[in-house]
Design goal:
With 301 residues, this protein is an alpha+beta fold. Helices cover 30% and strands 35% of the residues. It has 6 helices and 13 strands. It has an 8-stranded antiparallel β-sheet. Strand 4 and strand 5 form a beta hairpin. The protein is elongated, with a radius of gyration of 25 Å.
Length: 301
């Protein structure tokens, strides 16, 4: 009996030491969201800009499913570790592990016995994020359409290098110039404006893309301008339809990546977007349409 009691005491002591000094979180909050991981990832990053963050939110382990942020509350610095897991193609499970950099041990002692200010602050902060996420998901829609061919087009374009959030701004900045120059030179247009992403840095949310107007190739093409020319060749791709503000059309990119992963399809992360509405005309953004293609990787590559 004495040995049993000593064994139990030792186990309890080890558990207590682990809880107080090793366990990484002081408090954990879990919830389900009616959207896919990429949309949650991007919403966290935008929401982070509204907080008193010490450093910008960053992806842990170079993937979109784990993020870390440091937020300052008075004399405390709280670390939020976000873990996102897809449940279905339109729902996710989110786990938020919260740790107080300066008062961790006292929090761990108090949390089991009372509803502390730390817990209240944590719940309020996560609830604020959930409201932001809920508002955001109401303002766009992504429909996966399956495999299709990217249409062949000859493109008059300008290369752009921006963050994902600045993508639509780069489009609007160049649309009038490209269109006006082409029309002035009597170049025949051949479809709706296109964004062709040539490089996507998912960790830093930065992209390089060619934005331009499909045209009929001719001898009238204006030279010695900022406009460049190339042909986009037909290629097998996964296709989605996006409805919403074009600022966040990249949500469809993440939805296509999730779909591809679930169906064992290997993609090239160089999406092509075709836009059917001019935001300058306003209207209900949910009625705006864009077709999004993500090229399927050639098995011979």
């Amino acid at each position: 009996m004495k040995k049993v009691l000593l064994g139990i005491s030792a186990i309890l002591a080890i558990a207590l030491l682990w809880y107080l000094f090793i366990k990484p979180s002081d408090y954990i909050i879990r919830f389900e969201a009616k959207t896919f991981p990429g949309a949650i990832n991007q919403t966290i990053k935008l929401w982070d800009q509204t907080l008193d963050t010490i450093v910008p939110v960053s992806q842990e382990g170079d993937n979109i499913f784990n993020l870390r942020q440091k937020v300052e509350f008075g004399d405390s610095i709280h670390i939020y570790d976000w873990e996102i897991q897809a449940l279905t193609d339109s729902t996710s499970k989110v786990k938020v592990s919260i740790h107080d950099e300066n008062h961790s041990i006292s929090n761990k002692i108090k949390v089991p016995f009372s509803d502390t200010d730390f817990e209240k602050r944590s719940r309020k902060t996560v609830l604020d994020f959930m409201e932001n996420l809920n508002d955001h998901t109401k303002n766009f829609k992504v429909t996966i359409l399956g495999e299709e061919e990217i249409p062949t087009k000859y493109l008059a374009y300008i290369p752009v290098k921006v963050t994902q959030f600045q993508k639509a701004g780069g489009m609007m900045e160049n649309l009038n110039y490209i269109t006006h120059t082409l029309i002035q030179n009597e170049v025949q247009l051949d479809g709706n404006p296109i964004v062709h992403v040539t490089k996507w840095d998912m960790e830093n949310d930065s992209i390089q893309y060619n934005f331009g107007q499909p045209i009929i190739r001719s001898e009238r093409l204006p030279m010695n301008t900022e406009i460049q020319y190339k042909r986009l060749f037909s290629k097998r791709a996964l296709k989605a339809e996006y409805n919403g503000n074009y600022i966040t059309s990249d949500r469809a990119w993440y939805a296509l990546l999730d779909y591809a992963k679930a169906n064992n399809i290997e993609l090239e992360p160089t999406p092509i977007e075709i836009f059917y509405n001019n935001p300058n005309f306003g209207g209900d953004a949910l009625q705006w349409k864009a077709e999004i293609y993500m090229p399927i990787k050639d098995s011979n590559e």
